[in-house]
Structure formats: C-alpha cells, structure tokens
Amino acid sequence: MVSFRGDSSTPWFADFSNYHARNFVVKGMSSQQKNKFFEDVKHYFWDDPILFKICADQVIWRCVHGQEAVDILKDCYNGPTGGHHGPNYTTKKVFGSEFYWPTIYRDAHDLVKSCDACQCQGKISQRDKMPQNSIQVCEIFYVCGIDFMRPFPSSRGNKYILVAVDYLSKWVEAKALPTNDARVVCKFLKYLFARFRTPRAIISDRGTHFCNDQFAKVMLKYGVTHRLAIAYHPQTSRQHANFEIHTAGDHRKVQLNELTELHDQAYENSLIYKEKTKRLHDYKIKDRIFNVGDRVLLFNSRLKIFSGKLKTRWSGPFTMTRVFPYGTIELSQIDEPNFKVNDYRLKHYFGEDIPKMVVPDLQTLSKDQ
C-alpha cells in the first residue's frame, strides 16, 4: 500500500478551509509562518463543503485527501482509462481530472514503483551487473578451470570432451570421453596432477559431475580448493584457450635466466590491466545494495517467450536469507529449498504479495557448497 500523508483524519487543507469558511487563523504561528500561510491561502477559495485551489493558469482544482486521493490516483494509473504510465504522466492525468493534494508527485512515484504488473516486466541491462571481481594468479597451474563440452555425435564411442585450462598460461588439456560422470572426471584430474602439479584451486560449474562426494574426496585428498560458478553466470569459469604451436615453439628459445624477470613483469602488468578493466566495468553499473530480509524478483534469462511476447521473465517475490561476497545471494521460497543466484539477475520488489511462481530450470542447493 502506498503511504500518503493525507491518510490521517485531519485533512492537509484544514487550516485553509477554516480561514475561508470562518476567518479562523491558527494561533501560535511565528511571523515567518504567518507570512507563508497568507501567501498560500490566497490561492484557495471555499465553496461549501469543498475547498478549491486556483493554479497559475487559472485552472481550478478540487482539494482532496486520504482514501479519496488514493482512489483517484489508482484510477488514473490502472483504471479503465489508465495505462500503467510513469509517475509524471499519471500526475498529469490527475491534474487533468482537476484534483490536487500537495504530495501528489511523491505518491504517484511510490504507486508506480510498487505496481506488481510493472515490476514483472522489462529485462536486465549492462548497468545491472555486479562489480567485477578479478581472479589474480601468479604461477602456472595455480588456478585452472574445468568443464565438459556439449555432447557430440559419437566417434569411437566418445560423446563428450572434458577440457581443463590453466588461467595463467591458457594451456589446454582435453580428453574425449564416452560419459560425463564423476568417475571419469576424477581419473582425468589425477592424470593432470601427476603430469603437471597440484593446483591451489579448480573452478567449475555446478554440474552433478563436479558436485558429488567422489569429486569432493579427491579435492580433499590433494588439498585443492573447489570453487563453484553461480548458476546462469558462466563468466566465472569461462577461459579462452590461447595456445598456438608455432608461438609456443618460439618462446622456448627464451633464456632461462630471463624467466624470473619476465614472470614479475607479467604479474605486474596483469594487476594493472585488471584494475583498469574493473574501473571501466564498475563505472557503468548501478550502485545496488542487497540486505538480508529484502524481497526481490528473479530474472529467468533462459525462459523462451517468442510464442507469448507478453509473458514475464520475472518470478517471485523471494526473500534474501544470506548475502555472500562477490555477488552471491541465497534466496528462500515457501515450501521449497533455498537456492543461490547471482545478484545480476535480481531487482528489489516493492508492494504486496503476488502469486508464487515456480522458477523453471533452476538448480536448487540444499546446503552450502
């Protein structure tokens, strides 16, 4: 419900009405308050039992308050002649209907902001993204990303390609596999650890082949931290393979005593570059603050709406239960387990409850990964 100043039993124009009807002036006003009162009251006149305001262009508006003002504003916004317009146009329609109260602009803004139908429309833009968080690595095979490529036509019994990319050198290791289960993933990682070294962290998505007890035991055994990308935010684990055989052959000719200096230079240049890209990225985004207990709507980027263009992509509202670093938010819904999303896909919800909608194709988490 929109909060109006005129909701109290005493109208906002009571002093003006008393002056014009009975020539009564409130006692105890300072000289400055009296000057302002008499400057304002001359723009009103009394026609029992209604007070009217004369505006600058000599148009006469009727003064209203309380529930009557609420009903007028709602009729101009979503009534038969409404159209869910913005606050300025809605206010213009109220003035066109010859009604007035002093907080009309603020009340129209609050009404438009809390409209359920309007909040469930629209998309998310570049300005809604979360602040950029760079992954800084200082050694080869210090951090690597791992993921399965989509199923391919069967060739020699293999349908999947498991790819691992080193975040510093962009070195690629790939293996064709017949299945995409946890067993083949663990076997592939043990081969990498034996061939190169044990990394400090591995970044993957939330697929079941990476989120299971067998994979967790291997990570614990080798002392590797497993980092998970947030659902529907693949930028966290995406790495481009930057490997070309001729370039690699030329770089082998670099003298070993130069490698330390080049390593330090590359690390410093990487810091400078990532700080610059973070400034450019964060400069264009909106400053949004989410707190525990806030009610939000969730944007479903995978929803196909070609057949019904007016179908909303927003579901909810949901309640925030936990706010993690780096843009991860945990949401709760009635009779369903909590789940985590990226705050890029959220926006604050204002207004009353709307019917709960099921979030399609969304992986839920029963515990903190």
UniProtKB/TrEMBL annotation:
Domain Integrase catalytic, by residue range, is: 127-236
The molecular function terms of the Gene Ontology recorded here are: nucleic acid binding; RNA-directed DNA polymerase activity
Going by the UniProt record, its keywords in alphabetical order are: Nucleotidyltransferase, RNA-directed DNA polymerase, Transferase
Q: Determine the domain of life of the protein's source.
A: Eukaryota
Q: Which GO terms describe its biological process?
A: DNA integration
Q: Which PANTHER family match?
A: ENDONUCLEASE-RELATED
Could you identify this protein by its name? Answer: Reverse transcriptase domain-containing protein
Q: Which organism is it from?
A: Tanacetum cinerariifolium (Dalmatian daisy)
